[in-house]
Structure formats: structure tokens, C-alpha cells
Amino acid sequence: MQKNLAITFYNRGLRSYIEVDLCRQCPRQDDKGCCGYYSPVFYPTDFAYLLQHRPSLIDEIFALPHITVLDSSVTLNQIIDGDGYRCPFHTQESGCLLSQDLRETICRHFVCPGINWQCEATLAHWKDFFDQLFQYEIDLNNRLAITLKEKGLSLRNLAQRPAYFKELQIVFPQLTRPAPHFFANYPQQETVLLTRAITSGKDWPL
Ligand code: SF4
Ligand code: SF4
């Protein structure tokens, strides 16, 4: 069955994201789609944003039962669901509980291979943008992690977490200003209609 879908690209700097209207009726038909196959990982760039915009979410993340805490990251391991797994922020009633800007990188950028927007020549500029952004974020997170480690701070140490986050709020602006040039070289937002052959259930590629 052929179906039209709308994909929207948002250039919001480090909080950029991609939205697809098809997700509301995901062809996987299991009420969790790709969120049943992923364990989100929050890095310093995410914590720096949450500290400014939703600090209580950091406490919620650290209070979750199945997390893996490393020096500068927290993985939210999947929880067992009726027929498999799901992310702890996913509900069958309303999908992801987090608004796009609060999600970590993969959750903001990922679009399943069934949609495969990257094959569209007319969307090459968005592939360039998200490729550059992905690498910029990796490099930035590495630099932030190294800097905080050099200051003797680690998220593994419960007692150090307030100092870690306080220092992150100092270091993050230092390492992100000025913003990279490519942020300004792409549109703020663009919606494109695509037509795809839809397969159902586990036949829909993830
Ligand atoms: S599998 Fe594809 S259509 Fe389904 S929720 Fe994920 S991105 Fe959306
Ligand atoms: S945080 Fe949200 S988008 Fe990411 S895997 Fe969990 S439910 Fe899905």
C-alpha cells in the first residue's frame, strides 16, 4: 500500500530534531515502534539543556530503576514489556512522554529505514546538516566529558553530581560560543511530503 507522509526538519542548533507524521500510526502496529528497540543515552549536552529548561527531569532520570551511569552519561535501559521491551519514557497511550527538545540525540534524529528520507536527492541539505550536527555533538560531548574528568568530577559518584552539574553550567557556554557556522546556513524548518510503500507489523524495517 502506498502512503503519503510528511517529514519535518527543525534546525534548532543542538536541540534540532526530525518529526514524521507517520509515527502516530506507526506501521509496526505494536504501539511502540522504534522506541521498543532503543535505550536512550543522555550526555553532557543534554544535561546542559535540561539544567536550564527542565532540571527536574535530571532527577527523574537518576531515579529510574534500570540506568547505567558512567562518568559523563546515563543510559536508560529498556524495561521488559508484555511482548518484548520498551523505553521507560514510552507509554502505549501517548507515546513518548518527553517533548522533542527534552529528548537525547538519537531520539531527536532517528527516522526508521522504512522511511529512508536520506535517499531523497532533494533532502541532501538536511543530510549534510544532521551529519555535521551529529559529529559536532560527539566532539563537544567528548570535550565536555574530558574537561569535567580533569576537574575530578564524575556522575558515578553520587556526592559529586551537584558539583558536576554546577561545573557543566560554567564549561558548556565556554565550549559552545560562538555557535558553529553551519547552524546559520540551513533553514529553520522545512516540511516535505514523501510517498512510501507501507508494510505492516514486523515487515516494516527498523
Ligand atoms: S518505526 Fe518509523 S514510523 Fe514507527 S515510530 Fe519509529 S520512526 Fe516512526
Ligand atoms: S525517550 Fe522517547 S523517543 Fe526516546 S526511545 Fe524513549 S519513548 Fe522513544
Structure, explained:
- With 206 residues, this protein is of the alpha+beta class.
- The chain has helices at 44-53, 55-63, 105-109, 124-150, 161-176; strands at 2-10, 17-20, 41-42, 67-69, 74-76, 79-81, 84-86, 90-91, 95-96, 189-197.
- α1 packs across α2 and α1 packs across α5.
- The longest helix is centred in the middle third of the chain and has 27 residues, at 124-150.
- It is globular and about 55 Å long.
- The mean pLDDT is 96.
- One iron/sulfur cluster is lined by residues 35, 38, 40, 87, 89-90, 96, 98, 103, 107.
Topology:
Blueprint: E1 2-10, E2 17-20, E3 41-42, H1 44-53, H2 55-63, E4 67-69, E5 74-76, E6 79-81, E7 84-86, E8 90-91, E9 95-96, H3 105-109, H4 124-150, H5 161-176, E10 189-197
Antiparallel strand pairs: 1-2, 1-10, 3-5, 4-5, 6-7, 8-9
Helix pairs in contact: 1-2, 1-5, 4-5
Bound molecules: iron/sulfur cluster (SF4) (2 copies).
